[in-house]
Design the sequence.
């Protein structure tokens, strides 16, 4: 077992993890720290606890959207479980097109959430 120090929002946290997982945990902490910074820049300082909670909600929303889109793609449809709007979507470009649409849908969803949080 390894013990590492992770920094999020200028605070240090000691975390124990399996050997070899240090880089992954650092990447996760950097992602969380980046989300906190983005949120703080968009809505201002609303208190650390509320900022952390709102960041967790954003990250959980991203995860749920990604899972929904993966489920839709596994079902043979487009992100969100919708069926493709045109026939013959198979082939090399079909997968890339669906992946591109999934990323675009994620970006739109994140922007909408950020806008709602900014209004809060």
Sequence:
């Amino acid at each position: 077992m390894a013990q590492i120090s992770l920094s999020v929002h200028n605070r240090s946290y000691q975390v124990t993890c399996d050997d070899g997982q240090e880089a992954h945990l650092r990447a996760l902490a950097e992602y969380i720290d980046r989300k906190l910074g983005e949120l703080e820049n968009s809505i201002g300082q609303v208190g650390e606890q509320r900022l952390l909670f709102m960041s967790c909600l954003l990250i959980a929303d991203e995860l749920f959207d990604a899972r929904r889109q993966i489920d839709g793609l596994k079902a043979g449809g487009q992100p969100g479980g919708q069926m493709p709007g045109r026939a013959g979507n198979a082939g090399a470009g079909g997968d890339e097109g669906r992946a591109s649409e999934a990323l675009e849908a994620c970006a739109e969803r994140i922007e909408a959430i950020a806008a709602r949080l900014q209004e809060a």
